[in-house]
Amino acid sequence: MNLHPMAAALVVALMAAPAMAGVTAEEAAQLKSTLTPMGAERAGNKDGTIPAWTGAATAKSGITSDGRRQDPFTDEKPLFSIDAKSMAQHAARLTDGTKAMIQKYPDFRIDVYKTHRTAIAPQAVYDATARNAISASLIDGEAGPQPKGAIGGVPFPLPKSGAEVMWNHKLAWRGTAWNWEFRGYQLSADGRWVLAGDSANDTTMPYYAKDASAEKFAGEYWMVRSLTRGPAIRAGEAITGRLNLDESKTSSWVYLTGQRRVRKLPNACCDTPTPFSAGITSFDEVEVFATRLDRFDWKLVGKKEVFIPYNSNRTHTPAKDADVLGSRFLSPDHVRWELHRVWVVEATLKPGQRHTSPKSRYYIDEDSWQAVLAERYDANGQVARVPFGLPTVMSDVPATAIVTWGVYDLTSGASYINGLLNERRTPYKPMPAYKDVVFTPDAMAGEGVR
Q1: Rounded CA separation 20/128 (Å)
Q2: Which of the listed CATH numbers 3.30.420.40, 1.20.1560.10, 2.50.20.10, 3.40.50.10810 matches domain 5-446?
Q3: How far is 310 from 301, CA to CA, in rounded Å?
Q4: Measured between alpha carbons, how far is 222 from 213 in angstroms, rounded to an integer?
Q5: What are phi and psi of 169, to 5 degrees?
Q6: Model-level pTM greater than 0.90?
Q7: Residues 279-312: pLDDT tens digits?
């Protein structure tokens, strides 16, 4: 893999540093000079195809009066497209997963647009990130490595390990709390799109609460309550999750309409299939990667310039979900790709552990710290699954955060797409912080309607 020269030098230098420790004040000072406040390189690339980061807000990406999110780049046209005929020409900037999609499906292509570095955050997040750079460390927990001494910002803006980069993804800035309505679709092996879920979610990140402090933080960094409204056979189902930095303490509950009871999920983790995706995705493929890190060794490969989905507000502009759902993947007409620098992290299964994907590779956007692409390999070393996330620019948060995500299964031909907003009227709306009681099994039981 051809690494970005500056990143390659940084990785080599950091390998000699003490493991699992915060950086020095001198290193952290780069967040105000050569690096952005979140830890990305401020400068553009040599040929100008990646611009410098300015920190300026992108206009007209908020929610309109009719409940739709605007596309600030609606008038832009693709610079070029990449398909099976032109893949070799651009191979150095394509992930193996993208190449596998192009090779398997003759009508799959990516439309590459001008790069915009839209990822920004409030000043409070920048300030917290600067503090975390010095105070945060990675410790061994019961569910693998976990951050300590971090709160309110990117925990490791100058990462020294693959595990630190993955925690940056898990704790990436998406807002403090939000409400949204969306649909998820299952693609059957014979090519039929089937509605798997029509959901309404309330989500909050106590990690980013205004009054949060590292000393008092109890570890629950993400809380979600999801109510299923359709299809009819699933209407009334609900799920509540409380994710902890120590993933052995993470808890999830499901409300079952047939029993009118709340049950605790025994293993909402790792390669366990998710019920809301009809079993097509696993829990650790939600938004490209989620849950515990202890089954794998995490190698920080370095940084690379790659074509990735980005600023894909155009995915949400068609009025119908069917306009976005293509033959066996999202319609290339409605997915925007750009050239960005990404951190590359490889996960290799530890001896004695089991997983359906013994090896995976993740691509994490340097500006937002969100994993946007991945490929998961089977036991024969072949790309078998391609998780992806589509970052959407949202000036009202402000953030550039994944909204739509999914997984293409290249072995079975089945796929799952989640987070389609086209026929919904609440597209990731920022909210005041929710009360803790909202995310409890008792609250979910009290709201059961079937």
Answers
A1: 19
A2: 2.50.20.10
A3: 22
A4: 15
A5: -65, -50
A6: yes
A7: 899 999 999 999 999 999 999 999 999 999 999 9
